[in-house]
Write a structure and sequence with these properties.
952 residues, alpha/beta, Arc Repressor Mutant, subunit A, Rossmann fold, five-stranded antiparallel beta sheet, five-stranded parallel beta sheet
Length: 952
């Protein structure tokens, strides 16, 4: 290298496999940037300036640390880091050597690239936006790609911000190319033959009219520059030809193009410009969280620029996030919609998105004509399509959300589908379709703005109804027999079906419309009912099953079509409206029909439904009988999901009927089988039976004298339920784990869990669980000393549950009500409440909480104005006996504590101590829980009393 030349004037220096952009301060090896610290890079530049000469240590210290006094050891450390980054010394290659006592020398050959185009030929760039949102990473990547690979195309749909990104790159690389940056907007070029001439004119080159490319190449020989070709899609062929030749024959020219489709030529690196990130769906999203998203930042900035005077509020954050998601993160769409916020407000703007108005909203007057409305932008893309591509685009607009290639051909294909397949590929290339991987399968989708535009075009076509019919038939075909069985009997991941929801809804809407085909609607409603149930979309399931039954032709009565619809209606109605006679009749009728048809899958599903109905109604013995019938059917079916689910249902039924040993056994056996078969979850009717089994196991463990283990499983149940996208599952987990925490004495967090249950159940219309949450809150207030308020809340909740015939927890709430009334001094009312609870338990043939009811009855007999110790003792002895029969050591201890106190008050301390000790000694854990601590204190007191009696 010529030592007299200042390398800062030449910008790019090459040595070995490395290239150093001095002005850009970027070191590249091959195609990849090399990470080098700022001080180390300063040292490298200083040494290369005097390559082949020795640069003294003092000169290097002054150059790198001009205003700071540092030790020589600092220089040695940075030189060592630099050598490591360069691979100095590997395979005998040397770059930097240390000359003892003098300094350092750069010894590798250095080649400088030819001088760039003179500064005075600089083409003025479009202005840089004052603030660009969410593209810093893309700009950095594009800069690196341009330096390393020379030829990059920014590809994406209209309105994504390709030109904005290209302009930003151009401005940031002016120094890199010594102002030799040329921006050519091809929008006005309509004749393919004019492309090379337009480029030559922008470069200030002399171009021959007949064949401009050779002249252009000759003018660029030996010149280093950055050439940006914007808006290439309408002249894609000549641009592809020109750029391929420039890349191959002008090695110092760097190329950046923007287009809605790739050029697909030699040397091109495609940079797909992604949408702006939007927040994930979250109803509890705060304004601060939303504003970390570039899409929301852009929305609020443009809203403010349009005259909207307010900042984003927490309550509006989910609405704005949903708007940005619906606009697919497309910058232009977000800007245009946000510009309307000043006129309509945030909610009003969201409401207007359901119309086509946003396609016509005006943008900035300074924008290109095709960017002033979304409609104009989409007109530009649409007009570039062939007639067949236009037809296919409009047909595919019937899809709501993702669709497969097979779905595209089913809706848009003709005989053979070859032309349709080619059109789909072309639409994908032109960024009018996007792809994503869902469940291991490639799916396509349109941006919502593109779909809205294409739907309007389809509505003008005489083939619209035929296309919608094909779409509805395709959606029906998604739910064949195997798919239906998988969904109905415990599909382990219902989320795999979620992408189909939008299309199923659209197909059902059309089928039952005046222009549709109700026959398709009947079939689709029945086949998709398990999907709506599995995703806890109960209202939708009920709605579509009702529509299907109303349109069911006479010929389909008493067939599987009617069976599927009535089953879906009965199950969804049970969760929404409670346990009505109509629901029970529908379930029993369906079971008889399934048996007559020999359909074991529907038999098992309906037996499960009847078990649920009877559990919720409080008829635990009958529920157990149906659980046992279901287990027999599951064994005959032989499906692992069915067998595991049947075991867990047996566990639930035995627990509620009062056999805790059997409940624990069946739950644990279900978990063993699930582990052996690799089952992570078993879903049915919108909740996970695995979580349900955890709930029952937690309760059974506490009742059997394992309070610590029971509490651990309770926490696990809530954690797993929280991770499921199933509102019913989480409601049930919270409703039936809160009592376990209270039994154990773990009060921290109980009130918060109760409020969470109430809010979650209200949000998802799970009426019974909402009432249970209110009842649990009343019980909690009673225990906290606010008996009056708690009793009133409990009474209202119990009335709601009675109206819905939801009696699963009725006996427990009668016990809590009796306790609250007694605390208020209303002993007659308390006695009546506990008597009603006991009568209900007797009517059911026993319940799991019968021992606790008897204990509470004894407490009320002792607490009233006329204590009755005899009746109290009888109740406590009955409670002890019942608890032992149920293998419910937890209830037994509570009854034993109460009886021991009663006996001690009568002076029979020895009997009290022996009886209580016999129960206490059966425990092996949980000695810090509330009941065991109370028992230990009482035993200590009884021992003291016994000693005093002996001394006397």
């Amino acid at each position: 290298m010529d030592a007299s030349g200042d390398p800062r004037n030449y910008e790019i220096l090459s040595f070995g496999p490395f290239r150093l952009a001095v002005a850009e301060r970027l070191l590249v090896k091959g195609d990849a940037p090399v990470t080098v610290g700022g001080r180390s890079l300063d040292i490298l530049i200083a040494l290369i300036e005097q390559a082949g000469e020795v640069v003294s240590t003092q000169d290097l210290l002054k150059r790198v640390w001009p205003d700071v006094t540092v030790e020589e050891s600092n220089l040695r450390v940075h030189v060592a880091h630099l050598r490591k980054a360069l691979g100095d010394g590997l395979d005998g290659i040397r770059y930097i050597i240390n000359v003892c006592g003098r300094g350092y020398s750069f010894v590798a050959p250095v080649v400088r690239l030819p001088s760039p185009i003179p500064t005075n030929s600089y083409q003025k760039l479009p202005p840089l936006l004052a603030r660009m949102i969410g593209r810093d990473g893309a700009i950095s990547t594009l800069r690196s790609q341009l330096i390393c690979r020379r030829f990059v195309s920014i590809v994406g749909p209209g309105g994504m911000g390709k030109t904005t990104a290209a302009v930003a790159v151009a401005h940031t690389m002016r120094e890199e190319f010594s102002n030799a940056v040329f921006f050519v907007d091809l929008l006005a070029v309509t004749d393919a033959a004019q492309v090379a001439g337009a480029v030559g004119s922008a470069l200030g080159c002399f171009i021959r009219a007949q064949d401009p490319v050779p002249s252009l190449l000759a003018s660029l020989a030996g010149k280093r520059l950055l050439l940006i070709l914007d808006n290439c899609e309408h002249v894609i062929e000549p641009v592809a030809t020109l750029t391929e030749r420039l890349f191959g024959e002008a090695p110092l020219v760097h190329l950046l193009t923007t287009s809605r489709e790739a050029l697909r030529v030699e040397g091109e690196t495609i940079h797909l410009l992604p949408p702006l990130d939007s927040p994930l769906e979250d109803d509890e999203l705060t304004a601060a969280q939303a504003l970390t998203s570039p899409a929301v930042q852009l929305f609020m900035e443009r809203a403010s620029a349009g005259g909207y005077p307010s900042t984003l509020k927490d309550g509006e954050a989910p609405i704005v996030a949903e708007i940005c998601r619906r606009l697919d993160g497309i910058a232009l769409a977000i800007e245009l919609v946000a510009s309307r916020v000043a006129a309509y407000g945030i909610q009003g703007t969201a409401d207007l998105l359901d119309s086509r108005f946003e396609l016509l909203w005006q943008g900035r007057r300074s924008a290109l004509p095709r960017h002033q409305t979304l409609c104009a932008m989409l007109d530009w893309s649409y007009d570039l399509l062939s007639e067949h591509e236009k037809t296919v685009l409009c047909k595919l607009s019937v899809f709501v959300g993702p669709f497969t290639f097979e779905g595209a051909l089913a809706v848009a294909g003709e005989a053979g589908g070859t032309e349709a397949a080619a059109a789909v590929a072309s639409l994908l290339d032109r960024s009018l379709l996007w792809t994503s991987e869902l469940g291991g399968t490639i799916h396509y989708r349109m941006a919502e703005t593109t779909r809205t535009y294409a739907v309007a075009k389809l509505a003008e076509s005489p083939s619209e109804q035929a296309v919608r019919r094909h779409h509805a038939l395709h959606c029906t075909s998604l739910f064949g027999l195997d798919a239906l069985r998988a969904a109905a009997l415990g599909d382990r991941d219902m989320s795999a079906w979620t992408p189909h929801l939008g299309n199923v809804r659209a197909a059902l809407d059309w089928s039952f419309s005046s222009a549709g085909d109700p026959g398709i609607g009947v079939e689709l409603a029945g086949r998709s009912a398990p999907l709506f149930l599995g995703l806890s979309l109960l209202n939708e399931c009920e709605h579509w099953c009702k529509r299907g039954l109303a349109a069911l032709p006479e010929v389909d009565r008493d067939t599987k079509r009617e069976l599927a619809l009535r089953e879906g209606l009965a199950i969804s109605s049970m969760f929404i409206r409670g346990n009505t006679d109509e629901v029970r009749t529908a379930l029993v009728w369906g079971l008889h029909l399934a048996e007559a048809l020999g359909d074991r899958y529907h038999q098992l599903r309906l037996l499960t439904g009847l078990n649920l109905f009877l559990v919720r109604s409080g008829d635990f013995r009958a529920a157990l009988a149906f659980a046992e019938r279901g287990a027999t059917i599951a064994d005959a079916v032989g499906d692992p999901d069915c067998i595991v689910m049947a075991e867990w249902i047996l566990g639930v039924s035995h627990h509620l009927a009062g056999d805790q040993a059997a409940a624990q056994c069946h739950c644990e056996r279900g978990f063993e089988l699930a582990a052996a078969w690799g089952l992570v979850r078993v879903d049915c009717f919108g909740y996970d039976h695995r979580v349900r089994a955890l709930i029952i196991l937690a309760r059974a463990l506490w009742l059997r004298g394992r309070p610590e283990r029971g509490c651990e499983v309770a926490h696990q149940a809530i954690e797993e339920a929280t991770g499921r996208d199933q509102p019913v599952t989480l409601c049930i987990a919270l409703a039936y784990m809160i009592p376990v925490f209270r039994w154990t004495g773990e009060v921290d967090g109980v009130e918060g869990r109760i409020e969470r249950l109430i809010a979650h159940a209200a949000k998802h219309s799970v009426g019974p669980c909402h009432a249970i949450g209110l009842a649990l809150k009343g019980e909690f207030l009673i225990a906290r000393g606010e008996a009056g308020t708690g009793v009133q809340l409990l009474l209202r909740a119990m009335a709601t549950l009675r109206a819905e015939r939801y009696q699963l927890e009725a006996t427990g709430f009668y016990r809590a009500l009796a306790d609250g009334l007694a605390r208020c001094g209303q002993f007659e009312e308390a006695s009546a409440a506990i008597a009603e609870g006991l009568a209900l338990a007797e009517q059911r043939g026993g319940t799991f909480d019968l021992p606790e009811l008897l204990r509470t009855q004894a407490e009320i007999n002792l607490a009233g104005p006329r204590p009755d110790a005899t009746r109290a003792e009888a109740s406590l002895l009955a409670a002890l006996d019942c608890a032992r029969k149920q293998s419910a050591l937890g209830w037994e201890l509570r009854a034993a504590i109460a009886l021991a106190r009663l006996l001690a008050q009568r002076g029979d301390a020895d009997r009290a101590r022996d009886m209580l000790a016999g129960v206490y000694e059966q425990f092996s854990e949980g000695f810090e829980t509330t009941d065991l601590k109370a028992a230990a204190r009482l035993l200590a007191e009884l021992g003291h009393c016994s000693q005093e009696s002996a001394c006397g």
